[in-house]
From TrEMBL:
Residues 18-113 form the GIY-YIG domain. It comes from the Bacteria. InterPro entries: GIY-YIG_endonuc (IPR000305), GIY-YIG_endonuc_sf (IPR035901). The lineage of its organism: Bacteria, Bacillati, Bacillota, Bacilli, Bacillales. This is GIY-YIG nuclease family protein. It comes from Heyndrickxia ginsengihumi.
Length: 118
C-alpha cells in the first residue's frame, strides 16, 4: 500500500471525537472557546483563520495582526458519549461548552467569545 493510501485509511479509521477546544493568543492571553462534533475539523478552523474567513471578526483581526505563530489551539475536553437511545450529542456538547465558557469567562478583555443571552 502506498503512503497516500495508508494515510487515507488511517484517517478513516481514526474515531470521530467531539469536544471543546481553545484558541489562545500567547501574546495578550486572550482566548476563544469553541466546540466541534469532530476534532478532525480543527484544521478547517485554522484554514478559515489563515484565509481571513473566520466568523469571529476580533479573533480574525488579531490572527492577522499577531500572526499564526502567536496562537495555540488546544483540546480542553473530549465529550464522553453515552450508549443511551435518548442521548443527544449536540445538546451534551452545548452543555459542555457552556461549562467551559462559565469557567474561563473568555469575554471582553479576556477573550474573543461573545456572551450568549438566554
Amino acid at each position: 500500500m502506498d503512503r497516500k493510501k495508508e494515510l487515507k485509511q488511517l484517517y478513516k479509521e481514526t474515531p470521530i471525537e467531539a469536544g471543546i477546544y481553545q484558541i489562545k493568543n500567547t501574546i495578550n492571553e486572550k482566548m476563544f472557546i469553541g466546540s466541534t462534533r469532530n476534532f478532525k475539523t480543527l484544521n478547517g478552523v485554522t484554514f478559515t483563520l489563515e484565509t481571513g474567513t473566520h466568523t469571529n471578526k476580533t479573533l480574525q483581526d488579531e490572527w492577522h495582526q499577531f500572526g499564526k505563530e502567536a496562537f495555540t489551539i488546544d483540546i480542553l475536553e473530549k465529550l464522553k458519549k453515552k450508549d443511551d437511545p435518548y442521548y443527544n450529542e449536540k445538546e451534551a456538547l452545548a452543555e459542555l461548552e457552556n461549562k467551559w465558557l462559565e469557567q474561563l469567562q473568555p469575554y471582553g478583555e479576556r477573550g474573543y467569545n461573545k456572551k450568549k443571552f438566554r
